[in-house]
Every structure is written in C-alpha cells, then in structure tokens.
Amino acid sequence: MQGILTFLIPLAIGAVTLVLGLGLFNMVRAGSPNRSQTLMRWRVGLQAVAVLLMMLAIFIKTR
Known about the structure:
Elements: H1 2-28, H2 33-62
C-alpha cells in the first residue's frame, strides 16, 4: 500500500499543478470565465484528493 501511495501522491500534486497552471493561463489570456471556474473547481477537488492521500500515507506509516 505504501508503494502505491508513493506513486499516487506525486501524481496528484502534478495534476493539481497542471490544472492550476491551465486556469491561470486561461485567466491571463482573458479566456472564458466559465472555463476558469471549471478549472478552479477541478483544482479544489484534486487538492482534496492529494491531501487525503498524504493523510492516508502518514496514517499507514505511523501505524
């Protein structure tokens, strides 16, 4: 389980970074506000997943 989390945590953080970058790029180039809103909602969801994975890894490691 720890090995899977070692792979999933950086993947989740990378996904958050990618979506954040896409949202910022869309905002800077004055793109669609609806697209920016959608990307920021995805970012929040992906951040929640990343934090939960990190909490799970800490829980497993300290058990």
